[in-house]
Amino acid sequence: MAKLSSAAWIAHDVGLATAIGGTLFAREALHPALREGIDDQRHRDRIADAAWRRFSWVNLAAHGAMAATWFTGRAMLSGREVNRRSRPLTVAKDALMVASLATGIASVVLGRAMGRRVREEGTLADREKKETLRRAVGATGLVNLAANLGILGLTAALAMQASRSPRFALFSRRLP
User: Fold this and answer.
1) Residue 173: what pLDDT?
2) Number of domains, the chain
3) What pTM was estimated for this model as a whole?
4) Which residues make Cβ contacts (< 8 Å) with residue 110, sequence separation at least 6?
5) Nearest CA to 148 among 115, 117, 104?
């Protein structure tokens, strides 16, 4: 029978994979394909907005799953249960989790604001605000991707530390 801690680890990893995969797909496939396939900027923006409005709920759920499982586990573990090297890795992952959650939420909020501008026909000032929002969404998304890639690396490093720790093997048997 699977333990609750195993289910939480799976939820954490699926959330992380979703957050990374969605951003990479958009940056490397969706937006370039829209630029190549659709000449009309407004039409391209509307399609991208519709896609992001759908995915934003999945993205928020992914970030929520990552954060909820990590911080719940952190309430039970300090990182010292493995070895001395795991504690700084754990603290670094804490910081990246906060950064990921903050930039994930900010990206959705900014994206929604930009989407409203895309769906409305506006003045030159409105178009300039849309471009400012587009740059802010792009920058926030890039910081979010970097934080999530850092989390991925730290998750792997912590798992490797735990797998070599006899002390953690004994401790982990008591986890739910």
Assistant:
1) 56
2) 1
3) 0.87
4) 133, 136, 137, 140
5) 104
